[in-house]
Amino acid sequence: MTETERFRELGQQLRVDSVRASSAAGSGHPTSSMSAADLMAVLLEGGYLRWDVDQLTNPANDHLIFSKGHASPLYYSILKAAGIIDDAELSTFRQLGSRLEGHPTPRIPPTDVATGSLGQGLPIAVGIALAGRRLDRIDYRVWCLCGDSEMAEGSMWEAIEHAAFNRLSNLTAIIDVNRLGQTRETMLGWDLDRYRARAEAFGWHAITIDGHDVEAIKSAYDEVLAVTDRPTMIMAKTMKGRGVKAVEDLPGKHGKPLDNPEEAIRELGGERDLRVQLRRPDPAEPHEFAVAGGELPSWDVDEAVATRLAYGEALTALGSIRGDVVALDGEVSNSTHSELFREAHEDRYFEMFIAEQQMVAAAIGLQVRGWVPFASTFAAFLSRAYDFVRMAAISQANLRLAGSHAGVSIGEDGPSQMALEDIASFRAIHGSTVLHPSDANQTAQLVAQLADRPGISFLRLLRGKTTVRTPADEKVIIGGSRTLRDGDSVAIVACGITVDQAVAAAETLADEGIDARVIDAYSIKPIDAETIRAAARDCGAVITVEDHWPEGGLGEAVLEALAETGDRPPVHKLAVRQMPGSGKPEELLRQAGIDAEGIAAAARNLAAG
Amino acid sequence: MTETERFRELGQQLRVDSVRASSAAGSGHPTSSMSAADLMAVLLEGGYLRWDVDQLTNPANDHLIFSKGHASPLYYSILKAAGIIDDAELSTFRQLGSRLEGHPTPRIPPTDVATGSLGQGLPIAVGIALAGRRLDRIDYRVWCLCGDSEMAEGSMWEAIEHAAFNRLSNLTAIIDVNRLGQTRETMLGWDLDRYRARAEAFGWHAITIDGHDVEAIKSAYDEVLAVTDRPTMIMAKTMKGRGVKAVEDLPGKHGKPLDNPEEAIRELGGERDLRVQLRRPDPAEPHEFAVAGGELPSWDVDEAVATRLAYGEALTALGSIRGDVVALDGEVSNSTHSELFREAHEDRYFEMFIAEQQMVAAAIGLQVRGWVPFASTFAAFLSRAYDFVRMAAISQANLRLAGSHAGVSIGEDGPSQMALEDIASFRAIHGSTVLHPSDANQTAQLVAQLADRPGISFLRLLRGKTTVRTPADEKVIIGGSRTLRDGDSVAIVACGITVDQAVAAAETLADEGIDARVIDAYSIKPIDAETIRAAARDCGAVITVEDHWPEGGLGEAVLEALAETGDRPPVHKLAVRQMPGSGKPEELLRQAGIDAEGIAAAARNLAAG
Which of B293-308 are b and which e, b meaning 16 or more Cβ less than 10 Å from the residue's Cβ? Predict the structure, then answer.
C-alpha cells in the first residue's frame, strides 16, 4: 500500500471499530468518531504521535487529549490500532468493570485525564504543554482533538488565549468541524474562515483543511512541526458519520449506535486488523529544579497573622524544600500571597490571570506530569471552575486549591467576594480533603502535608488576622482537630475565623458557670469524628459555628459524624443565614450571629433548655 | 460651558466623587473608576443613556451594567450625578446597612444585577438584550462597562459569540482598557488592534478610541447608534487612576483608596455638584405573548415515565397557560426534552449551545425584565455555571434550573455525565429551592409552582423511567413529602430514582417482618422536617438513600432536620461512595448499594443492631 492508502485504510478501520464498539455497547457516539477518523489515522500512521507503547509512562511520550470525549469509540479504536488494547477489550466498551468507559478516563492508560464535559480537554492540554515547556523541558507534543460544538465553551477561549500568550508551539488543537451538534448545526457551521480569523486574532497559527483529505492532513501536520513560536490550530472540515450514507452529515444521528451496523461496516470496506507501529520519542528525562532546602515558617503563640499570609510563606518555604512544588494564581497573588512563591521561585510560578477555569485546568495538566501544583485565588472564584474540579476527581488528579477571603469576615468588599458555599461544594467532590485552619502554624503544617495528599484538596484561607494558638512544635494532621478548652456543659465546634470567637465566648460562659469545650475542627473532611463523638457523649449540647451558609459546611460535617449515634445531645448550628452586605468584619460576624456574643447566647439558650 | 467642557467637567466630578467615596470608606477601587470616568460622563451627558429617573422601573429604560463591578465608586458617582442618590448617601459607601455595597447589587435601584465576580456582567447584558429584542420588543439599549482584565474570562467570549450570533445591535460593550490588572499588566496591555481583531472575528462592530478624548467617545457612541445589524464593542485606551499623578498608570494602585485624597481632589479641580438631566426613553410597553391555555399534563399511576420527559411536557403546557414563561437549553434539548417547548413556543425558546455560563447568565438577564426563565441541561453541566448561580442569589434573581441525567442511574455514559454533587452545591446557594421528584406527576406540579417561586430553584431530573406513584389529583407542594408506606421499624427516606428501590425494599422487608416506612422526600430544600421528625420519633432507625455523593445531599438534609432533636434513632446514609464507571443503570445502582437489595440489607442490619 502507498502511504496515502495506508492512511485511508487505517481511517476506515477506526470507523469500523467505532461502529462495532458502540453497536456492541448499544450506546455511544459512532458518528462523532467517524468525522475525526482520518485526522487521527494520519496522526498515528504518519508518525506524528510519538508514543512508546511498551512504556506508556515514558516521560518523553506525546500526549493525546480527546477534548471531545464522547468520541471515545474512536479513541479506543486508536488504542487497539496501536496495540495497547486488543479487540476483545474493545468489545467491552461501556460495560460494567470495563476500562473503556463511555467517556475516556485514566482507568485506561495512557489516558491522562477524564474528558466528557466539553471544553475541558484543551485547557488541560495547555497545562501539559506548559509542563513540557517550563517544567519538564522535554519536547513532547500535546495533540488535542476538539469538537466544533465545544468551541462555544468559554473555557476553550481561555485556553486559546493562554496557549498563545505562552507561545506553546508544542500544542496542536485539531478542531473536528463536523458542523452538527447534538440537536442542530453549530453557530458557525462549516465557516472555517471565521474559525481561522478567531484563531489568528488570538495569536495562533491557523490551518484550514478538508478533514477527509489525508494528504492535506499530512501537510497540515508537517506544517505544525515547522511552527516554533506559537500553537497551531487545524480547522478540519469534516462530516459527522463520514463514510456511511445512512448517517453521513445528517441531523438526529448524535450519540446513538447505527441502526444497521453490518451494512455500515460493509459500506466502510469491512473489518480490518491493521496495527500501527507508533513512532517512539527520543529518550528524555524531566528537568529537576535545584532547591535550597530550609524549614517551614512558624509563628509564636498569640501573634496575629492572616492564614493567607501563612499560606504564601509556607508555600514559598515548601518550594525551597521540594523542587516539584509549583504555584498558580488567578491574578490575585498579592491577596493570596502566592506572590511570595513567585518572587522566590519564578520559574515554577504560573500566572493564570482572571481565568479560573484555565487555572484549575492548567493545574490538572501539570500534575499529569507528576508536578505538585498549588493553585490559589479567592475561594469565591474557585466556584467558577467547579465543573473542572468535579472532572478532576474523575481524572484521579492530585490538586491543591487554596481559596482565600472566605466568608463574611472579609468585610467591606461585600458578598460577591465572600466564599460562603465553598465548604459545601468542595466536600461534595469525590475523595476530597477540606481544610480550614484557624491559625498560621496550622496553615503551614497543612500546606506541607497537602503536597503528598492524593485527590482534590481545598484549603480555605482567611483575609483577616487570627490569633496563633497552635504551638509551632505541635503536630497538626489532616483528620485531626484541636481541643482548645475542656468542658462538659456544651461543646463548641468552630473552624477558621470563628475559633477566636468561640474561645472568647467560652471565657464569657465560664464566668457564668457554663463550662464550654472548644474544638477547632480545622480538618472538615475528613473530620475528627472521634473527638466530635466524645464531645457529644460528654456534653449536654453541641454548637457548631462557621462563616458559611448553613448547608453542607462544618455543621453538617459534624452532624454526619454523629449520624449513626442514636443517643446524642441536640446540635445547634450557627452559620450565616441572611445575605450579607458590606461592613466591617466584626460587624458582619455579629450580624450573622457567629461572633463571641452570638455563640455565648446560643450556649446560654441550650444550657437553659 | 461647551458640550466638550461639560463632558470633561462631569468626568472630573465622577473622579472626584469616586476618590471621596473610597476615602470615606477606607477601601474600594478609585483608580479603576477613574479610568472609565470620561466614558461614563459622555454616556450620561451626551444623552446616550436613556433613564427615566423618576420611574426607575420604566420598561423602556436603558440598562447600564457594570461588568467591572469593582468600579462601584464610579457607578455610585453616576447615580449621584443623575440625582438618584444624594451626596450624603454616597458617603455611606461600604458601610454596614448602606445600599452602596462594595460591589453593586440590586439593593440600590436601578441596579439590575450584582456584579463583582468578573466576566459576568457582559453575559447577563446579553440576556437583557435578548429580552429587549425577542421578548419585550422594546428598543432599550444595554450598555455594559467591562474591564480589560476580565476579557481573560471565557464567559466573556461566550457572551461575545452569542451577542453576535443573535445580532444584538441593542448591546454595546465598552471595554475600559486601562492595561493594569490587580498585580500586573494584562496579557494584551494596550494592544487595541488585537482586541479589535478578536471582536471583529467574533462578528462585532469594533471601535477603538482614546478613552479620555471626550469627542472621540461621543463619536463612538454616535457610531453605535448607527449600527443596526450587530453589537458594538468600544475598546477605549485609558489610564488607571487617570488625572492624579500619584496613581496614574502606575502598578500597585489597585483596590485601595488614595493616600492623599485632598491633594488628588485639588489636582482634579476640586469638588463639583453637576447634575445631569438624563434623556428619557420614549414610552413603551413590553410585548405580551398570546397563549392558548390548557392544562398541565398528568399520567396514570403505575405508568413508567422519565421525569425529564415530564419536565418537557409540563413546561410546554405551562408555556401555553402563561405567556411569561420562557425556556433556555444548552444544546441538549432532545435529552432534557425542552425541545417540546421549543416546538410549541419557538419565539420564547433560547438555544444557548454548549455554553452553560452564558445560559445561566441569559436566564438572569431575562428575569431582570420580569420574564420567567427555565434553563435546562444535564445537571452535571450546571456545575459549569456555579459561580453564576452563586452571584444570581446576590442579584436576587428568580431562576429555575432544571438538571437532567442525575446520578449513576444514567448508566453507560459514565461519571463525566453523572451529577453526583448537584444537590450539595445547590443546597448551598442562599435562598435556594432543591427539588428531586420521583415521578412524572410530581414533576409536572412542581414545574408549575416553580414559575412563581422566588430565588434560585433547582429541579433534578432523571434520565430513566420511574413508576408514577403520585395520583394526578394529589396536591404536591414545595416543602412537602409523600409517605408511600407506613411502618415503625425503620424509616427509609428516598428521592428520585431511589424511591422505586425503597418501595421494593420495603416489600421484601415486610415479608421478613420488618415494617418499613417509606418517605419520598422530593422536596430536599425546604425539606419536610415535620414528617422526618415524626419518622425519627416513631421508628427505630432512619435510612436515607440517594443517587448522589454522601456529602451535602438528602442524607445531610435529613440530619439537618433532626439536628436539634437530642433523642432520635441512628441515621444511616446510603449514597454513592466509590467513583462509578459505565454500566447498566441497575448494575450501577447495585454497585453503589442504593438499590432495593442494598436498602433492605441496611435495614436488616439496623433492625438486628
Answer: eeebbbbeeeeebbbb
pLDDT at A56: 97
Q: At what angle do helices B3-25 and B37-45 cross, to 10 degrees?
A: 130
- Domain end residue (candidates: A437, A467, A497): A467
- Residue A514's domain is classified under what CATH number? 3.40.50.920
pLDDT for residue B565 is more than 90: no
Domain presence at residue A296? no
Last residue of a domain, one of B415, B432, B467: B467
In chain A, residues with a C-beta closer than 8 Å to the C-beta of B75 are none
Chain B neighbors of A101, CB-CB under 8 A: 414-415, 581-582
Chain A residues inside the 8 Å CB shell of B559: 556, 559-560, 563
Domain that holds residue A261: 3-267
Distance to chain A for B1, nearest Cα, Å: 38
Note whether A94 contacts B560, CB cutoff 8 Å. Answer: no
Kindly report the length of chain A: 609
Q: Which of A69, A107, A202 sits opposite B416 (nearest CB)?
A: A69
Mean pLDDT of A128-147: 98
Lowest-pLDDT range of A47-61, B67-81, B365-379, B561-575: B561-575
Alpha carbon distance B96, B80 (integer Å): 20
Cα separation, A437 vs A449, in Å, equals 13
A356 flagged as catalytic: yes
Give the chain A residue nearest B396 (alpha carbons).
Answer: A579
Q: Is residue A525 part of a domain?
A: yes
Judgement on whether residues A52 and A175 belong to the same structural domain of the protein: yes
Q: Is the CB of A181 less than 8 angstroms away from the CB of B331?
A: yes
Report how far residue B270's alpha carbon sits from residue B251's, in angstroms, rounded to the nearest whole number. 25
CATH number of the domain to which B53 belongs: 3.40.50.970
Tell me what pLDDT residue B32 has.
Answer: 98
Q: What angle do CA A406, A411, A416 make, to 5 degrees?
A: 60
- Residues A453 and A526 occupy one common structural domain: no
Mark whether A366 and A493 lie in a shared domain: no
Same domain, B179 and B258: yes
pLDDT category at B609 given cuts 50, 70, 90 is confident
Cβ contact A26–B412 (<8 Å): yes
Distance from CA of A282 to the nearest CA of B (A): 34
Could you tell me if A226 and A341 lie in one domain?
no
Instruction: Report chain B residues whose CB lies below 8 A from the CB of A155.
Output: 154
Asked, for residue A274, whether it belongs to a domain, the answer is: no
Catalytic pick from A356, A507, A546, A597?
A356
The pLDDT of A384-413, averaged and rounded, is 98
**Least CA distance to B413: which residue of chain A?**
A102
Q: B507 to chain A, minimum CA–CA distance in Å?
A: 24
Domains in chain A, number: 3
The overall average pLDDT reported for chain B is 98
pLDDT (tens digit per residue) in B367-384: 999 999 999 999 999 999
What is the average pLDDT across A513-536? 98
Is 80 exceeded by the pLDDT of residue A609?
A: no
What is the predicted ipTM? 0.98
Residues B341 and B438 in one domain: yes
Q: How confident is the model at residue A13 (pLDDT cuts 50, 70, 90)?
A: very high
**Are B79 and B207 members of one domain?**
yes
Query: Do A454 and A492 belong together in one domain?
Result: no
Out of A153, A549, A582, whose CB is closest to B154? A153
- Segment A252-280, tens digit of pLDDT: 999 999 999 999 999 999 999 999 999 99
Chain A residues closer than 8 Å to B416 by CB: 69, 102-103, 105, 114-117, 391, 394
In 3D space, the residue among B338, B37, B98 whose CA is nearest the CA of residue A580 turns out to be B98
The active-site residue out of B45, B158, B313, B356 is: B356
B15 is written with which cell numbers? 473622579
Is the separation of the CB atoms in A121 and B416 below 8 Å? no
Residue A255 lies in a domain: yes
Residues B49, B279 contacting (CB under 8 angstroms) = yes
| Distant-in-sequence, close-in-space partners of B210: CB < 8 Å, separation ≥ 6 | B216, B236, B237
pLDDT in tens, B314-349: 999 999 999 999 999 999 999 999 999 999 999 999
